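Justification of computing resources. Each target in the renewal requires a structure prediction run like the one illustrated here; the chain below, 462 residues long, is used simply to show the kind of job we budget for.
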Amino acid sequence: MAMSPAISALLAALLSAAPPPPLVITNVTIIDTAGGPSRPAMTVVVEGERIKLVGETDKTAAPRGAKTVDGSGKFLIPGLWDMHIHTFFGEWVPGGREVTLPLLLANGVTGVRDMGSDPEPILSARRDVETGKLLGPRMIVSGPMLDGPKSQFPSSISLATPEDGRRAVERLARRGVDFVKIQSYVPRDAYLAVAEECRRRGMAFAGHVPDAVRAGEACDAGQRSFEHLIGVFEGSSTAEELFLEGKKGPARFLDTFDGARESALLGRLAKASTWQCPTLYWERGQWLVDVIDVTKDPNLRYAPASWREKTWPEFAKGILKDLATDPLPVREEFVRHELEIVGRMRRAGVPFLAGTDTPAGVGVLPGFSLHHELERFVDAGFTPLEALQTATRNPAIYLDRRKDFGAVEIGQLADLVLLDADPTSDIRNTRRIAAVVANGRYLSRADLDGILAKAEAYARSH
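Resulting structure tokens:
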């Protein structure tokens, strides 16, 4: 489907180098992501890329020449963050610029932590977003992932020795990445060398707890976040030694679960503030890949044909062969067990981030999947506000950038989402997007629909 001239003109205008005029959103209810009461009848003034003023509407004057948006009956939240994505993942999921980044922005995702991408395109995209040449979320990137000698993933660097690990960190630091991503097959001695080199350079490292490392050891080594709850299952089991040898699976996890071990580990993680990015929506899709019919998703039209016809079937085949080998009832129980673990971690004070692993999962669509992830947090016992915090305030704390984002306050970067309903009463309301402000640029509902239309046109032909 060819893109209409109107949509082409719209997107060209959005990418214009000219700075936008001041933006004023009036009569809006601001959601306090720190947990304070919502503030109705407020005005937010944006100048350039920052919030200039926040005040009561009847006491706040609009700057001359400003674009004014009536926020009556609407709710304003900080831009959402997806803290686990892969934008440029080899040939597995093409369309990083054309699909992944636009779909994220159209869904209110104004910031991402990219957990493994090909270095040239991800560094180029990060630069182009920063300079306004590319419309997309701001990016915190790792570049290629660090994995073991026989990595099965694209966008990765294979490590066999400690020296391999130190050299890889040095190389990534020279390239200007923001942090280092660890995968499952990194050998123990190489992992410890990576951790030491990152500490020496003041770089964060995050990712999987490798198969050869205990969760407690990763916590002590300073790993900033654990992904997919890897290490937590093993550390909560009486069979942790066997799991270090690679003998894993839902049935073994359930049969050997030990509440006392789990409690001790959760206390350790909470004390060290070791963040968890459980990717619950992706996890559910992985373990139940043979019974979830992704073809019924109405948003499937935004997925390129190559994802639907090649990549996802290959993913499903690999999952059924290597992971989803236990009977369906066992896997269903394990999915419930994951939610229960996350609920107990929450009560223990372990901090959380929302992430989706998009688009490296069957049916895990960029942007749309983050809203599913927030709903899974609520299913695990989070309040809607707590779920919202995992994609707003918590990423700002994790990245030590609370002065820049995570709240609707004076001085913050102007990354905002205007909603038609209150997300703290029902987390599903994060989907009801009226407009997005990305780095000070206002994207109306019509603008967002234009972005979606362009992504759909690309998906039809690729």
